[in-house]
């Protein structure tokens, strides 16, 4: 028998949803029936030789969600629920949840390279840190306001000065130490001063009435020497 090749196209029985709804012919058993819906979807039913198309189940009805999950090995995420309320959070290019999807207290501090680079309109519940000046700001509703003075104070090599942000600032007048200062709170007061004894004055002339201890010793020695050299010593005594 000679073989012949037929150039032909085979199409399954197909109708629109509206056409199938008015169909009175019962599809024979095993006949695939294709349905094109008004919203552009394609559905299929298989005839059983008994029921009208309208009474047959869609093939998809026999495939349950549990069967799909079991086949995939995981539960698919509905893309329509990503990043929306009552849905799931999305991830940015760094693998992190975008700050817009986080509560404000999670991202209260925002770093900017210069306060001029902060958003034109800030948020009242945020703190902005300028990484250039290391100063912190808040949004007042109309402008960025520095939260607190952030001056950097360091020691200065000049007496009586400190450095504020690298500039010498005079804080007191340097005072030289004063030996005679008795006020212990004064910068000029000298602590732990040695005690210097009262100066000793030697009388110009020897005198028996001198109150100077050293002078008295000198006088006593002189008198003793005089007595030794005197032949006679007269004493006036009253009996």
Written account of the structure:
This protein has a four-stranded mixed β-sheet, with no helix packed on it. β6 (135-139) and β7 form a beta hairpin. The chain has 239 residues and is an alpha+beta fold. The protein has helices at 17-21, 65-72, 213-228, and strands at residues 13-16, 32-36, 42-46, 109-112, 127-130, 135-139, 144-146, 153-155, 161-164, 167-170. The protein is 12% helix and 17% strand. It starts with 12 loop residues before the first strand and ends in an 11-residue tail after the last helix.
Quick take:
The chain has helices spanning 17-21, 65-72, 213-228; strands at residues 13-16, 32-36, 42-46, 109-112, 127-130, 135-139, 144-146, 153-155, 161-164, 167-170. It has 239 residues and is of the alpha+beta class. A four-stranded mixed sheet has the order 4-5-6-7, with no helix packed on it. It has a three-stranded mixed sheet with strand order 1-2-3. Strands 8-9-10 form a three-stranded antiparallel sheet, with no helix packed on it.
């Amino acid at each position: 028998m000679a073989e012949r090749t037929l150039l032909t196209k085979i199409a399954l029985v197909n109708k629109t949803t509206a056409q199938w709804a008015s169909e009175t012919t019962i599809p024979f058993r095993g006949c695939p029936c294709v349905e094109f819906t008004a919203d552009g979807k394609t559905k299929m039913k298989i005839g059983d030789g008994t029921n009208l198309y309208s009474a047959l189940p869609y093939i998809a009805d026999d495939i349950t969600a549990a069967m799909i999950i079991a086949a995939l090995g995981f539960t698919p995420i509905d893309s329509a629920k990503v990043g929306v309320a009552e849905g799931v959070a999305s991830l940015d290019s760094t693998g992190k949840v975008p700050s817009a999807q986080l509560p404000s207290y999670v991202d209260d501090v925002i770093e900017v390279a210069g306060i001029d680079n902060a958003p034109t309109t800030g948020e009242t519940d945020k703190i902005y840190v300028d990484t250039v000046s290391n100063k912190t700001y808040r949004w007042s509703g109309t402008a960025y306001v520095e939260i607190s003075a952030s001056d950097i104070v360091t020691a200065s090599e000049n007496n009586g000065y400190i450095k504020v942000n690298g500039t010498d600032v005079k804080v007191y007048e340097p005072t030289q130490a004063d030996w005679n200062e008795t006020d212990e709170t004064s910068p000029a007061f000298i602590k732990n001063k040695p005690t210097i004894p009262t100066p000793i004055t030697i009388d110009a002339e020897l005198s028996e009435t001198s109150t100077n201890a050293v002078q008295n010793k000198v006088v006593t020695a002189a008198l003793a020497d005089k007595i030794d050299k005197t032949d006679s010593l007269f004493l006036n005594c009253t009996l």
